[in-house]
Please model this.
Amino acid sequence: MKVLLMGDASNYHRCLATGLARLGHNVTVASNGSGWMETARDIDLSRKPAGKIGGAILWARLNTVLASRLKGYDIVHIASNGFVSLKPQRMLTIFDRLRHDNGKIFLSALGTDSIFVRACTKKDPPLRYSEWQLPSGPTEWSARPEAARDIWLSDELYRLSDHLYTHIDGIVSALYEYDTVCRHMYPDVPVAYGGIPIDLNALPRRTGGSDDDKRALLLTYAAHRGREGEKGADILLRAAREVAARHPQKVILSCPDNVPYTQFIEILRHSDIVTDQLYSFTPATTALLAMALGAVPVSGAEPEFYDFIGEKELRPIINPDPCDFEKTCSRLERIVTDRELFRSIQAQGREFVQRHNDIDTVARRFENFWLSL
Model:
Protein backbone atom coordinates (compact mmCIF):
# COMPACT_ATOMS: atom_id res chain seq x y z
CA MET A 1 0.00 0.00 0.00
CA LYS A 2 0.98 3.60 -0.50
CA VAL A 3 1.15 5.27 2.93
CA LEU A 4 1.52 8.91 4.03
CA LEU A 5 2.60 9.63 7.60
CA MET A 6 1.75 13.29 8.21
CA GLY A 7 3.55 14.97 11.10
CA ASP A 8 5.87 13.43 13.67
CA ALA A 9 6.84 13.46 17.34
CA SER A 10 10.09 12.12 18.78
CA ASN A 11 10.85 10.22 15.55
CA TYR A 12 7.68 8.10 15.91
CA HIS A 13 6.46 8.26 12.31
CA ARG A 14 9.97 8.16 10.85
CA CYS A 15 10.77 4.95 12.72
CA LEU A 16 7.35 3.48 11.90
CA ALA A 17 8.00 4.20 8.22
CA THR A 18 11.07 1.97 8.32
CA GLY A 19 9.01 -0.91 9.75
CA LEU A 20 6.21 -0.45 7.25
CA ALA A 21 8.70 -0.36 4.37
CA ARG A 22 10.06 -3.73 5.56
CA LEU A 23 6.54 -5.09 5.19
CA GLY A 24 6.51 -3.96 1.58
CA HIS A 25 4.61 -0.67 1.84
CA ASN A 26 5.61 2.49 -0.01
CA VAL A 27 5.85 5.06 2.78
CA THR A 28 6.30 8.85 2.75
CA VAL A 29 6.90 10.91 5.89
CA ALA A 30 5.89 14.58 5.76
CA SER A 31 6.89 16.45 8.93
CA ASN A 32 8.83 19.29 10.50
CA GLY A 33 11.43 16.83 11.80
CA SER A 34 10.02 16.90 15.33
CA GLY A 35 11.29 20.47 15.69
CA TRP A 36 14.76 20.78 17.19
CA MET A 37 15.22 17.00 17.04
CA GLU A 38 15.75 17.28 13.27
CA THR A 39 14.47 13.78 12.55
CA ALA A 40 14.47 12.56 8.96
CA ARG A 41 11.54 13.17 6.62
CA ASP A 42 10.77 12.88 2.91
CA ILE A 43 8.70 16.08 2.72
CA ASP A 44 9.78 18.99 4.91
CA LEU A 45 6.93 20.79 6.68
CA SER A 46 9.12 23.06 8.79
CA ARG A 47 7.76 26.49 9.65
CA LYS A 48 10.67 28.76 8.74
CA PRO A 49 11.19 31.47 9.71
CA ALA A 50 9.32 31.33 12.98
CA GLY A 51 6.23 33.45 13.53
CA LYS A 52 3.54 34.67 11.16
CA ILE A 53 5.82 34.90 8.15
CA GLY A 54 6.86 31.27 8.53
CA GLY A 55 3.23 30.25 8.89
CA ALA A 56 2.26 32.11 5.74
CA ILE A 57 5.10 30.51 3.78
CA LEU A 58 4.18 27.02 4.98
CA TRP A 59 0.51 27.58 4.17
CA ALA A 60 1.44 28.77 0.68
CA ARG A 61 3.70 25.75 0.12
CA LEU A 62 0.96 23.36 1.22
CA ASN A 63 -1.39 24.94 -1.30
CA THR A 64 1.07 25.00 -4.20
CA VAL A 65 4.26 22.96 -4.53
CA LEU A 66 3.34 20.39 -1.85
CA ALA A 67 -0.33 19.93 -2.73
CA SER A 68 0.30 17.30 -5.42
CA ARG A 69 2.66 15.33 -3.15
CA LEU A 70 0.00 14.84 -0.46
CA LYS A 71 -2.62 13.01 -2.52
CA GLY A 72 -3.21 9.55 -3.95
CA TYR A 73 -2.31 7.51 -0.85
CA ASP A 74 -4.17 4.38 0.26
CA ILE A 75 -3.54 5.20 3.94
CA VAL A 76 -2.89 8.53 5.66
CA HIS A 77 -1.87 8.76 9.33
CA ILE A 78 -1.85 12.16 11.01
CA ALA A 79 0.20 12.74 14.16
CA SER A 80 -2.50 13.72 16.65
CA ASN A 81 -3.65 17.30 16.09
CA GLY A 82 -0.12 18.62 15.64
CA PHE A 83 0.45 17.14 12.22
CA VAL A 84 1.30 20.55 10.79
CA SER A 85 2.31 23.81 12.50
CA LEU A 86 -0.60 26.03 11.48
CA LYS A 87 -3.61 27.68 13.08
CA PRO A 88 -6.51 25.32 13.90
CA GLN A 89 -8.73 26.56 11.06
CA ARG A 90 -6.01 26.01 8.50
CA MET A 91 -5.25 22.59 9.95
CA LEU A 92 -8.93 21.71 9.48
CA THR A 93 -8.67 22.72 5.83
CA ILE A 94 -5.54 20.60 5.30
CA PHE A 95 -7.16 17.64 7.08
CA ASP A 96 -10.32 17.81 4.97
CA ARG A 97 -8.22 17.97 1.82
CA LEU A 98 -6.20 14.94 2.93
CA ARG A 99 -9.44 13.08 3.56
CA HIS A 100 -10.83 14.04 0.15
CA ASP A 101 -7.67 13.31 -1.87
CA ASN A 102 -6.69 9.96 -0.33
CA GLY A 103 -8.08 6.63 0.85
CA LYS A 104 -8.55 5.85 4.53
CA ILE A 105 -7.35 8.34 7.12
CA PHE A 106 -6.22 7.45 10.63
CA LEU A 107 -4.99 9.29 13.68
CA SER A 108 -1.78 8.29 15.46
CA ALA A 109 -2.59 9.16 19.08
CA LEU A 110 0.82 10.18 20.34
CA GLY A 111 0.46 13.57 21.96
CA THR A 112 -1.64 15.92 24.05
CA ASP A 113 -4.72 17.46 22.46
CA SER A 114 -7.89 19.16 23.62
CA ILE A 115 -9.69 15.82 24.04
CA PHE A 116 -6.96 14.41 26.28
CA VAL A 117 -6.91 17.52 28.47
CA ARG A 118 -10.72 17.53 28.76
CA ALA A 119 -10.70 13.88 29.77
CA CYS A 120 -7.96 14.33 32.37
CA THR A 121 -9.48 17.44 33.97
CA LYS A 122 -13.10 16.32 34.19
CA LYS A 123 -14.75 15.28 37.44
CA ASP A 124 -14.30 11.53 36.90
CA PRO A 125 -11.18 11.12 34.69
CA PRO A 126 -10.43 7.77 33.04
CA LEU A 127 -6.85 7.80 34.41
CA ARG A 128 -5.90 7.65 38.09
CA TYR A 129 -3.55 10.58 37.57
CA SER A 130 -1.97 12.64 34.82
CA GLU A 131 0.16 15.74 34.41
CA TRP A 132 -3.10 17.65 34.82
CA GLN A 133 -4.58 16.05 37.89
CA LEU A 134 -3.60 13.84 40.84
CA PRO A 135 -6.01 12.09 43.22
CA SER A 136 -5.50 15.03 45.59
CA GLY A 137 -6.43 17.61 42.94
CA PRO A 138 -4.85 19.57 40.05
CA THR A 139 -1.08 19.36 39.73
CA GLU A 140 1.00 22.43 40.49
CA TRP A 141 2.16 22.54 36.86
CA SER A 142 -1.39 22.57 35.44
CA ALA A 143 -1.99 26.03 36.94
CA ARG A 144 1.17 27.55 35.46
CA PRO A 145 0.95 29.79 32.38
CA GLU A 146 3.11 27.41 30.34
CA ALA A 147 0.54 24.65 30.79
CA ALA A 148 -1.86 26.74 28.65
CA ARG A 149 -4.83 24.96 30.20
CA ASP A 150 -7.35 27.54 29.00
CA ILE A 151 -5.99 27.29 25.46
CA TRP A 152 -6.19 23.49 25.41
CA LEU A 153 -9.76 23.69 26.67
CA SER A 154 -10.77 26.47 24.27
CA ASP A 155 -13.64 25.97 21.85
CA GLU A 156 -11.30 26.51 18.89
CA LEU A 157 -8.98 23.62 19.78
CA TYR A 158 -11.89 21.43 20.83
CA ARG A 159 -13.56 21.91 17.46
CA LEU A 160 -10.33 20.93 15.71
CA SER A 161 -9.79 17.80 17.82
CA ASP A 162 -13.41 16.72 17.73
CA HIS A 163 -13.55 17.15 13.95
CA LEU A 164 -10.47 14.95 13.55
CA TYR A 165 -11.79 12.21 15.84
CA THR A 166 -15.20 12.13 14.19
CA HIS A 167 -13.93 12.13 10.59
CA ILE A 168 -11.27 9.42 10.72
CA ASP A 169 -11.47 5.72 10.01
CA GLY A 170 -9.68 4.74 13.21
CA ILE A 171 -7.07 5.50 15.87
CA VAL A 172 -3.77 3.77 16.61
CA SER A 173 -2.48 4.66 20.07
CA ALA A 174 1.17 5.01 21.04
CA LEU A 175 0.64 4.73 24.81
CA TYR A 176 -1.73 3.11 27.28
CA GLU A 177 -2.84 6.56 28.42
CA TYR A 178 -3.88 7.72 24.96
CA ASP A 179 -5.57 4.40 24.25
CA THR A 180 -7.62 4.64 27.45
CA VAL A 181 -8.68 8.24 26.83
CA CYS A 182 -9.58 7.65 23.16
CA ARG A 183 -11.78 4.65 24.00
CA HIS A 184 -13.40 6.60 26.85
CA MET A 185 -14.11 9.77 24.88
CA TYR A 186 -14.95 8.20 21.48
CA PRO A 187 -16.32 4.71 22.14
CA ASP A 188 -17.70 4.40 18.59
CA VAL A 189 -14.36 5.05 16.85
CA PRO A 190 -12.22 1.94 16.16
CA VAL A 191 -9.05 1.98 18.29
CA ALA A 192 -5.99 -0.29 18.25
CA TYR A 193 -2.83 -0.19 20.35
CA GLY A 194 0.29 0.29 18.26
CA GLY A 195 2.95 1.15 20.80
CA ILE A 196 6.13 3.10 20.10
CA PRO A 197 8.37 1.59 17.39
CA ILE A 198 12.06 1.11 18.23
CA ASP A 199 14.55 0.07 15.56
CA LEU A 200 16.83 -2.27 17.48
CA ASN A 201 19.00 -2.86 14.41
CA ALA A 202 20.08 0.78 14.64
CA LEU A 203 20.80 0.49 18.39
CA PRO A 204 23.59 -2.06 18.99
CA ARG A 205 23.58 -4.01 22.24
CA ARG A 206 25.89 -2.59 24.90
CA THR A 207 28.95 -4.58 25.95
CA GLY A 208 30.21 -4.03 29.51
CA GLY A 209 33.81 -3.79 30.70
CA SER A 210 35.47 -5.70 33.53
CA ASP A 211 35.62 -2.59 35.73
CA ASP A 212 31.92 -1.66 35.38
CA ASP A 213 31.14 -2.46 39.02
CA LYS A 214 33.91 -0.15 40.25
CA ARG A 215 32.95 3.04 38.47
CA ALA A 216 30.20 5.52 39.39
CA LEU A 217 26.95 5.21 37.48
CA LEU A 218 26.12 7.98 35.02
CA LEU A 219 22.63 9.30 35.77
CA THR A 220 21.30 11.37 32.85
CA TYR A 221 18.51 13.88 33.28
CA ALA A 222 16.95 13.47 29.82
CA ALA A 223 14.33 16.19 29.96
CA HIS A 224 12.75 17.86 26.96
CA ARG A 225 13.77 21.42 27.86
CA GLY A 226 10.74 23.68 27.90
CA ARG A 227 8.44 20.81 28.91
CA GLU A 228 10.02 19.88 32.25
CA GLY A 229 6.92 20.70 34.29
CA GLU A 230 4.55 18.90 31.93
CA LYS A 231 6.56 15.69 32.16
CA GLY A 232 7.29 16.05 35.87
CA ALA A 233 10.97 16.06 34.90
CA ASP A 234 11.65 19.00 37.22
CA ILE A 235 10.57 16.86 40.18
CA LEU A 236 12.68 13.94 38.94
CA LEU A 237 15.65 16.30 38.73
CA ARG A 238 15.17 17.23 42.40
CA ALA A 239 15.15 13.55 43.28
CA ALA A 240 18.24 12.88 41.15
CA ARG A 241 20.13 15.75 42.79
CA GLU A 242 19.24 14.52 46.27
CA VAL A 243 20.39 10.99 45.53
CA ALA A 244 23.57 12.19 43.81
CA ALA A 245 24.38 14.41 46.81
CA ARG A 246 23.92 11.48 49.20
CA HIS A 247 26.10 9.14 47.13
CA PRO A 248 28.72 11.22 45.26
CA GLN A 249 31.02 8.20 44.86
CA LYS A 250 28.33 6.02 43.34
CA VAL A 251 26.60 8.29 40.84
CA ILE A 252 27.42 11.20 38.53
CA LEU A 253 24.54 13.43 37.40
CA SER A 254 24.52 14.78 33.83
CA CYS A 255 22.01 17.38 32.55
CA PRO A 256 22.39 17.80 28.78
CA ASP A 257 20.44 20.41 26.81
CA ASN A 258 18.10 19.73 23.90
CA VAL A 259 20.15 18.24 21.07
CA PRO A 260 19.31 16.71 17.67
CA TYR A 261 18.07 13.12 17.72
CA THR A 262 21.35 11.54 16.57
CA GLN A 263 23.30 13.29 19.34
CA PHE A 264 20.63 12.33 21.87
CA ILE A 265 21.12 8.67 20.99
CA GLU A 266 24.83 9.00 21.76
CA ILE A 267 24.02 10.53 25.16
CA LEU A 268 21.74 7.62 25.99
CA ARG A 269 24.34 5.13 24.75
CA HIS A 270 26.76 6.26 27.46
CA SER A 271 24.19 6.56 30.27
CA ASP A 272 23.48 4.01 33.02
CA ILE A 273 20.28 5.49 34.45
CA VAL A 274 17.98 7.89 32.59
CA THR A 275 15.24 9.99 34.18
CA ASP A 276 12.32 10.45 31.82
CA GLN A 277 8.76 11.09 33.00
CA LEU A 278 6.92 11.29 36.33
CA TYR A 279 3.24 11.45 35.35
CA SER A 280 3.15 8.67 32.77
CA PHE A 281 1.79 5.15 33.21
CA THR A 282 3.94 4.02 30.31
CA PRO A 283 7.59 4.15 29.23
CA ALA A 284 7.69 6.48 26.23
CA THR A 285 10.36 6.98 23.55
CA THR A 286 13.26 8.11 25.74
CA ALA A 287 12.74 5.27 28.21
CA LEU A 288 12.47 2.65 25.46
CA LEU A 289 15.58 3.94 23.69
CA ALA A 290 17.43 3.91 27.00
CA MET A 291 16.47 0.28 27.64
CA ALA A 292 17.48 -0.74 24.14
CA LEU A 293 20.88 0.87 24.72
CA GLY A 294 21.46 -0.77 28.10
CA ALA A 295 20.34 1.93 30.53
CA VAL A 296 17.73 1.74 33.28
CA PRO A 297 14.97 4.34 32.85
CA VAL A 298 13.06 6.16 35.57
CA SER A 299 9.67 6.46 33.90
CA GLY A 300 6.08 5.30 33.90
CA ALA A 301 5.60 1.59 34.58
CA GLU A 302 2.29 1.20 36.39
CA PRO A 303 0.52 -2.16 36.94
CA GLU A 304 -2.22 -1.06 34.53
CA PHE A 305 0.37 -0.73 31.78
CA TYR A 306 1.96 -4.15 32.35
CA ASP A 307 -1.51 -5.73 32.39
CA PHE A 308 -2.47 -3.82 29.24
CA ILE A 309 0.45 -5.26 27.24
CA GLY A 310 0.24 -8.68 28.90
CA GLU A 311 3.73 -8.58 30.42
CA LYS A 312 3.95 -10.89 33.44
CA GLU A 313 7.71 -11.28 33.93
CA LEU A 314 9.93 -8.37 32.99
CA ARG A 315 10.09 -5.25 35.17
CA PRO A 316 12.93 -3.18 33.64
CA ILE A 317 11.74 0.31 34.62
CA ILE A 318 12.02 2.28 37.87
CA ASN A 319 8.49 3.61 38.35
CA PRO A 320 8.44 6.97 40.20
CA ASP A 321 5.50 7.91 42.40
CA PRO A 322 3.88 11.20 41.33
CA CYS A 323 2.09 11.42 44.67
CA ASP A 324 5.06 10.74 46.97
CA PHE A 325 8.42 12.44 46.40
CA GLU A 326 10.19 10.44 49.11
CA LYS A 327 9.13 7.15 47.52
CA THR A 328 10.54 8.35 44.22
CA CYS A 329 13.85 9.22 45.90
CA SER A 330 13.92 5.87 47.69
CA ARG A 331 13.34 3.88 44.50
CA LEU A 332 16.08 5.79 42.69
CA GLU A 333 18.47 5.52 45.62
CA ARG A 334 17.99 1.77 45.80
CA ILE A 335 19.06 1.26 42.19
CA VAL A 336 22.09 3.55 42.69
CA THR A 337 23.35 1.81 45.82
CA ASP A 338 22.61 -1.82 44.94
CA ARG A 339 24.78 -2.72 41.94
CA GLU A 340 23.44 -6.27 41.79
CA LEU A 341 19.87 -4.96 41.58
CA PHE A 342 20.96 -2.46 38.93
CA ARG A 343 22.47 -5.22 36.79
CA SER A 344 19.38 -7.38 37.19
CA ILE A 345 17.03 -4.63 36.04
CA GLN A 346 19.42 -3.47 33.32
CA ALA A 347 19.55 -6.99 31.83
CA GLN A 348 15.78 -7.00 31.24
CA GLY A 349 15.54 -3.77 29.25
CA ARG A 350 16.45 -4.79 25.73
CA GLU A 351 14.39 -7.97 25.93
CA PHE A 352 11.38 -5.88 27.00
CA VAL A 353 11.78 -3.61 23.98
CA GLN A 354 12.23 -6.63 21.71
CA ARG A 355 8.99 -8.19 22.99
CA HIS A 356 6.75 -5.15 22.90
CA ASN A 357 8.22 -2.34 20.80
CA ASP A 358 10.35 -3.85 18.09
CA ILE A 359 9.80 -1.89 14.89
CA ASP A 360 8.48 -4.92 12.98
CA THR A 361 6.01 -5.81 15.74
CA VAL A 362 4.60 -2.28 15.87
CA ALA A 363 4.40 -2.01 12.07
CA ARG A 364 2.41 -5.26 11.90
CA ARG A 365 -0.05 -3.91 14.47
CA PHE A 366 -0.69 -0.93 12.22
CA GLU A 367 -1.03 -3.11 9.13
CA ASN A 368 -3.38 -5.58 10.82
CA PHE A 369 -5.60 -2.74 12.01
CA TRP A 370 -5.83 -1.18 8.55
CA LEU A 371 -6.72 -4.52 6.98
CA SER A 372 -9.39 -5.19 9.62
CA LEU A 373 -11.45 -2.13 8.62
